[in-house]
Amino acid sequence: MNTTNQQRIEEHRILSEPFYLAQGNEVELALAAAREQLPLLLKGPTGCGKTRFMRYIAWRLGRPLITVSCHDDLSTSDLIGRYLVKGMEAMWLDGPLTLAVRHGAICYLDEIVEARKDTTVVIHPLADDRRELPVEKLGMIYAAPPEFMLAVSYNPGYQSVLKDLKPSTRQRFVSLSFTYPQPALESRIVMTEGQIEETLAARLVRLAGMTRSLKESGLAEGASTRLLIQAAQLLRQGLDIRSACRAGIIDSLTDDPELLEAMEEMVQSIF
Amino acid sequence: MDLDAQKQAFYELVSPSRPNDWEVEEVMELLAGIPADYRRALLAHVPTIWPISHSLCFSFLGEGVKGASRCPPELLSEWVRQILSRYEESGLRAARDFMGDIDTNFLQPLHGNAGVAVDAIRGAMVPYLRGVSGLALDLAADGQGRLWTDTRTIFVPGRQRLFAERVDNLLFLRFTVILQWGYIAGGSFRRQPDGRDFAALAARYGTGAGEGAIDAYLSCFPDPARAGQLLLLFELPRVFDLIRRELPGLVRAVQPLCQRLLAEDQGRCGRRGDQVHDLLRSILLPPDPPPPVGDHRLQGDGESGALSRFPDFYDRLADGRAGADHVLTLLVGEPDFIAARKRIEQTRAEDREQFISRLAGVLEQTRAQGPAGEKGPGGAGRADSIVLTAQGGDRHGEQEEAPGLSLLAEIELPPDLAAVRQRIEADLGEVPASYIQAAAGMAGQGRNLASGPETDGQIVPPAASFVYDEWDYRRAGYRKDWCVLVEKELPAVMTDFVPLTLHKYRGLKTRVRRQFEMLRTAHRFVKRRRYGDDIDFDAMVDALGDRQAGFAPSDRLFIRLVRDHRDIAALFLVDMSNSTEGWVGRMIKEALVLLCEVMEVSGDRYGIYGFSGMRRSRCELFHVKHLHEVYGEEVRQRIGAIGPREYTRMGPPIRHLTRMLQGTDARLRLLITLSDGKPEDYDGYVDVYAIEDTRKALVEARGAGIHSFCITVDQTAQDYLAHMYGRGNYIFVNKIENLPRRMTEFYRLLTS
Ligand SMILES: Nc1ncnc2c1ncn2[C@@H]1O[C@H](COP(=O)(O)OP(=O)(O)O)[C@@H](O)[C@H]1O
Ligand SMILES: [Mg+2]
């Protein structure tokens, strides 16, 4: 059983350096938090680099990274683990959280507010200074080793902030707010990830910037870095700029005809 | 033609009023000069116009005489209709301007649709402008057809029809709007001439060596208006470069149009060597390859000395008046530097006040939450926070070493405050330390800050009253805490209104109830139930494992197909203004009764509120049914008690219900407004202002994740509806007797 778990954890090890360009001092902060054994709270709009950041941090720390995308069907067993029957024998299988605790890995709960409250209670004793995980069915309380790290993320844009995170829990976390990277940085990211030339990347970034100032006009969220990379990939496949932007970026943002028209015009003006 | 008889006939037309003799005489003399048929046709409209405005009527006759050779008599009625609507919208002056140019304002739009009406394209152009500029700029049609900006709103001719093709007109309009933004962003309206600049003018034109802002400087020129326009030309190379860099696609597309305008212009004035013309050509249509960026040609050298070369520029070009001025005006417009300066100063003052009071509120709140705050270090989010140092000096004070990870004196700014901060930084370079000190002082004194929406709840306003901002489109900003909304109870009245209505609609009710029952039957699997239709395999595996391991296995082993709990919260907001008096009001009430009856079977949570009021200080919201209230006799009685009251200020109740819905955890949150026409209130909440505020309130709701829809009851579909509610977000009911059916149908479609 140990060997399977050992194998499983190895799958989560990040072997080569992920491409990550720091926005500010977030890397230092996260490393400091790791040294102090404090959990991380990443907040920011979707597609601005939170997941990539965690991969990078895991690589820097040389620890495995176990990511759980939260959704409202997620159960406690999904996080902690469950018994399976093999032959006539019951066999315990660690859930991602337990796995991470036992092996000193990083557990990253992506979009935590998507999970139900009764599911997320299990992280409380891990987040405060007890740093332990009770596993009822095993009759065990695992103490997290210093290498274990908990990280959660949420998008303040479309969830009423803090609604599902108890203040007492929240205050245990070191918060890192992510915004979209500065234009020059974002251009480099799009250029590298999308493998397109620099001026084109810069223009995509400029387009994103324009869509991001449309909040007042009713666009809840502007184009994310991820969408830009997606458009870049379409471009690389030989699509023309208008179709790539339309399919890769604009249409994903809204159905409102006036906003669509405004963004189409932006594309026309920029390229 | 006998003038006296004619006059007599006129007096009869306008009796019993008795207009001034010589005024009548003057018009009659004019009328004498046109064919009798046409004269009769014109006079036929006098009884319509005279009661509305005497002056308008005289102007109408005067302009009508001038237009006699061009406007066929059968079009006169349409012309009058448009004149009157112009008059009602914007007053006498606008109506006169409209009449003044019958060709451009009336005949051409009537005959060709190639023109672009600003009102029709605002919906897409404003987001475009805001996206491109990153500024909260607005767009409006200028009454006199001028192009200019006060730095917050860009005013453009109400109609653009220079070209035969609509796309070209739209493109050129877009370009001129962007040029205005270029001047705003490039700082043309913020130039600060120094003492030497003024002295140079004094030496040249003998004006007193003055001081002041750019408008004062321009006023020292012999022809200030011309100087203003030439200053924009002077700066055009720089601004055009900026635009070409940012929006190369736009420039590429518009260049052929500029080429055409310049060519036509040359054809018209027929002389070469016009300096303005040549200059425009060299800037807009540079030879290939384009000169390197930064070649500013005629422009001064660098920021500071920039104005030193302007007087020469002016002297060289001011006299060549003829010719290319036309194109210059089309491109850069007729700037109003005074209006711009006033607007800049006003914005600066408003921002200062808003920033200080909001920041003080935030500081207060942070302090109330304890010294540690709730925030960790700001990480990458520097844009949203500000470091408070004792002196308020440098923005990034020495940060403590990370290990303690203790609180940096960083405060996270709510988005609206961050936006103000950005504006201030754009304006002044950085937030002056004095602002921050003032805010800290204010917070320290624990003064009550009636500022941001977040603080409202805490300042204990009089019972059940709420303060809301209102959107002022003219300055593209909110008027803070502008409206007070009071929640009120309707007096319960005993009436047989409900039973009668139910009897009337018994057939419809049964049918609709059945449809609404169907709504509930959206199916969904729920797992880990004690009983159900199928085995939950995951749970089964867990249980088997548990049992094998010696635990009592869970008995939640089934999957159940449930009629989905729809988890919808809907609020209905009902117009109770006096215009709903009578038939309309009655049908609205009947529709509500039917709605309640069928909503009960849908299982959705719903609430109903009425609204009316007068002036911004008294917006009233009447409780009919709260979201969680049971539909019973009292609710019925309150529906019966709904009746016409005062005005229709739609913004505050929409904002209020938005806030209510934000407090619910329903998956789908709906706000459905039922009204009978335009929003309007007594204190200037009319027309565009009211429409824009209502639109804004709905946009805010959408931004808060609330789906808002409107049902409008009116004779004819007005064209502002799509703009105000957003296309696809409203229905229009003109056969009022259909309202009960349409309304329930609408709700059903919305939620299924
Ligand atoms: N700072 C960054 N450095 C490198 N790549 C980045 C960065 N920020 C965003 N990206 C790119 O954007 C994509 C989306 O980011 P992701 O981490 O998935 O966003 P999030 O988790 O915030 O939704 C990544 O796959 C990566 O390609
Ligand atoms: Mg992610």
UniProtKB/TrEMBL annotation, chain A:
Residues 39-173 form the ATPase dynein-related AAA domain. InterPro entries: ATPase_dyneun-rel_AAA, CbbQ/NirQ/NorQ/GpvN, CbbQ_C, P-loop_NTPase. The keyword ATP-binding applies. Belongs to the CbbQ/NirQ/NorQ/GpvN family. This is Nitric oxide reductase NorQ protein. It comes from the Bacteria. GO terms for molecular function: ATP binding; ATP hydrolysis activity. Keywords: ATP-binding, Nucleotide-binding. Pfam families: AAA_5 (PF07728), CbbQ_C (PF08406). It comes from Desulfoprunum benzoelyticum. Residues 186-269 form the CbbQ/NirQ/NorQ C-terminal domain.
From TrEMBL, chain B:
This is Nitric oxide reductase NorD protein. SMART domains: VWA. It comes from Desulfoprunum benzoelyticum. It comes from the Bacteria. Residues 569-750 form the VWFA domain. Gene3D superfamilies: von Willebrand factor, type A domain (3.40.50.410). Coiled coil: none annotated.
